[in-house]
Specification:
There is one protein chain. The chain has about 250 residues and is an alpha/beta fold. The protein contains 8 helices and 4 strands. Helices cover about 45% and strands about 10% of the residues. The chain is globular and about 55 Å long. The relative contact order is 0.18. The structure holds zinc ion (ZN). The site of zinc ion has 5 residues, from helix 2. Zinc ion (ZN) binds next to helix 2.
Length: about 250
């Protein structure tokens, strides 16, 4: 069940049975020569929508632009200031809690978002504590889960891609997007086959160190079948974790 494909009476009926919603959250940023700009938003979205359909829980719109400052030397990347992202996450959350949602599970697709998401949670909880007399508000809880850290997913990625998984524009994440959008599969020769590794600093420094955008990876290995296996493992894990979170 997806929020943007539901009517308000359907959401009202859902709220009578559950106060929990899943929001995919990611980034719009370069993902190397064969990875889609939306990779970090599409991965949690693809997993979340399948999980929501299978288990009957509500999936919100994807928060699809995040912290991508260090990718700004590559065309197409869009970034938010941390303060903008925190303010936006607060507004999304307050809108949802106004309707009665009390459990917000953020399924994240971008490592660069983690610090800001946690800062946003602090901002959100601060507002809950100081709003109204005695903080008499619903028992709101937010949860952050990075999709690649879902139970069993990392082990499967290592098994599928023992060499050249790397840390940015990985064959695993590109495979997930190819599974979701097989018409977007691209065949691009990588040179060097395995990308260099190193620290992440400013945008210009990033492009000097990692000229095609990849870090440590060989995403030419990405394929639809591997993506399907990763998505299946992630869907199973997120259903179990979301159910526990929703009733805790
Ligand atoms: Zn990524």
């Amino acid at each position: 069940m997806q929020l943007h494909l539901s009517t308000w009476p359907e959401v009202e009926a859902y709220l009578a049975t559950s106060k929990a919603i899943l929001i995919p959250i990611g980034s719009t940023e370069q993902h190397g020569p064969n990875g889609l700009l939306g990779t970090d938003a599409l991965c949690p979205e693809i997993i979340a929508r399948r999980a929501g359909d299978e288990a009957g829980f509500l999936v919100g719109p994807t928060f699809n632009v995040g912290q991508a400052q260090h990718h700004m030397a590559f065309p197409g990347t869009i970034t938010l200031k941390p303060s903008t992202m925190i303010a936006s996450m607060l507004d999304w959350t307050e809108s949802l809690t106004r309707h009665g949602f009390e459990r917000i599970y953020w399924l994240n697709g971008h490592g660069g978002n983690i610090a800001t998401i946690n800062a946003a949670f602090s901002e959100i909880y601060h507002g809950v504590t100081f709003a109204g007399a005695g903080g008499n508000r619903p028992p709101l809880r937010c949860h952050l889960r990075n999709w690649w850290e879902l139970s069993g997913v990392m082990d499967l990625c290592r098994e599928l891609f023992p060499v050249g998984e790397g840390s940015h524009a990985t064959p695993s994440e590109v495979s997930v997007t190819y599974f979701g959008y097989p018409e977007a599969v691209k065949s691009v020769a990588m040179s060097p086959r395995i990308a260099p590794t190193g620290p992440i600093r400013d945008a210009e420094d990033y492009r000097r160190r990692f000229p095609d955008g990849r870090i440590g990876s060989d995403p030419s290995q990405a394929n639809v079948e591997a993506g399907g296996r990763i998505v299946a493992a992630a869907v199973k894990a997120v259903i179990s974790e979301f159910r526990q979170f929703g009733t805790a």
